[in-house]
From TrEMBL:
Pfam families, per the entry: MecA
PANTHER family noted in UniProt: ADAPTER PROTEIN MECA, ADAPTER PROTEIN MECA 2
InterPro entries: MecA_C_sf, Neg-reg_MecA
Family: Belongs to the MecA family.
Protein name: Genetic competence negative regulator
Amino acid sequence: MKIERLSQNKIKIFLTFDDLLERGIQKDDMWREIPKVHELFSEMMDQAYNELGFDASGPLAVEVFALPAQGMVVIVTRGKSESQQSADTEEDQDEDVYEMEVTLEHSDVIMYAFRDFEDVISVSHQLLQAKLTEDGRLYSYRGKWILTFDPVNSDQGRTAALIALLAEYGDATSLTTAVLEEYGKLIMASGAVAEICTHFQS
């Protein structure tokens, strides 16, 4: 579990699938009202307080992004939204109960980060040789190269093979597409694998 402060009232938590499995939570459980998920959220908030001094008292807006190869990104924003203010009741709330407004988004985009461009070249040649894909987008972001791929037409076998190859050379990243598009630099908008193989030898 990695926690990062985005602003004074906003944090980002990255959960790997191992983090979820260790707690007996399936990916689909994240949008169910079950005790395990509440325990996980309490644990995340305790860690956020200990590491960053983030106080999670009061209403919280929680956004959960499911990423296919990487895990889950949870964005927690502290403060009242207008809908929460109008929905407030006079019931006494336990201090340990978090008022949460949860929104869930599922992203099927596969995203891997590479430290060296040589690794990007190597994995591109492997992907092309295995006839897995010649597509993909290439970004530069904070000194790393990021390759992103749209899902392979619900073909789970090919998707698993694609992820396995990418994982040999790079690291799964907790970035969301929105962050990458806003702060990253787009190098190749489409056909990145074919383009790289055309211009660079492995």
